[in-house]
Amino acid sequence: MKGRKLRRLFRVVQPYISAVAVIVTAAVLVFAIYFTELGPQWITFLTGVLVAAILAEATRRSQAEWVITRRTLQLSAMKTKLERETQLRKTAENALAASKPRLHLIDEVLPIMVAFVDREGRCQYHNKAFLDWLNLRPEQVNGRHMRDVLGAKVYQETAAAVRQSLDGHTVRYERTQKMPDGAVYRLAIEHHPQFGDGAKVSGFYMIFNDITEPDDARLSVSQDSSADQNMFVDAYSEQVTGQHDAGMIRAAIENGEFSLYCQLITPLVANTGEVGHYEILVRLNEEEGSSLPPGTFFPLAEKYGLMTHLDRWVVQHVAEWLAQHMPRSAQQENAMYFLNVSGATIADPGFPEFLNLTLLEYGVPASALCFEIPDSELAMRTADVAEFARQVRQCGCRVALSGFGRDKVLFDLIRGFQVEFLKIDGSIILEILRDSVKLAKVTAINRVAKTIGVETIAELVENDETIASLKNVGIDFAQGFGISRPRPLAE
User: What is the pTM of this model?
Assistant: First the structure.
């Protein structure tokens, strides 16, 4: 601080020092000429010094004048620029004021529905038409996730388009929407990405345009008004076609009538640092409070093409639960949750997009999920399974093959893609204490799995003797009633 003051003081007195130096030099020269007997050499030297001082002072003054002129020009340019920017700001303000009626027209009058969705999937803007069409209040939309605004079913069906929008692409598509009053609407929808700082996508605008033909809506309402007359026909059709069962499963998915259970998958090898994992199990709730095992409703869901909806429901609810409960401890931080997927989901091209969106929405690490693929699906549709495994691994999730070894050992097929776990089929594990051939098969599977860097999990482990035998073989994990019974995930 003191040095800064001294430098400032020196800059102030510097011009005066130069002037005093010139005056002193001139005085010495005059004194030398008139009052001393100095020789011509000294007089010439002092004259040279005086001339040099005068030239230096003239140069300094010239430089100072040039600096002042340059600064004056810069200030003038900045003043001109400021005046221009002020004028532009006034013009923009006038244009904004003039556009307010048009903006009000868009917000309040035009029938086109507009909403802005940020990267987290939350609605940050909407116009009046959007609220009117959904029959919602502003507080039910502002800052709410689009899953809550549009409904889980619509959100899942548009997941691929949402993902493309967040990747910076403009998306256009059409969809049919059935309203609570039974009317059916045809909508043309556009997603326009919004780019923020660094050319990153900050969200996207959704524009909905009703392109329903008038006859279509009237036909839907007319059909609903005559529903009572056709009740007998519908009931008979349900008995013949089984659509009642399909409706029951679909309603259970949409209304959240399923519950999630988990079963521990524990490490068998001590001192390896491995943590326990969990397999997610699905149960259908009954009216009496009990639950039905999957064997009673999975066949119906597969028969009527509802397994993809059920698998998505499971993924969404597991991700939601993990976002609220994980991790509770350092030991659980690396725990994985195994989710079974059906053949329909494996062949569903929109599932990876849905998975990526769900992980992004809930902020769950992808490494916490491991998808179980039945080895029967690998044998029947190798290419589809390989592509599914590649895409979910690209999301960051893990892959396991379940039911391995039940039929033919498929080591040759798994060379084309990478899995983390092989779950040895329970029908083999149940027999290893009584059948040496089954024990040898488990040993061989485990040996080859270790060679290719895959961990093994034994299914349907029922007792301590089986656990001891599996430890001797070197199996990595065990799962079954001998380890832990399934319990509700919410506990």
Answer: 0.59
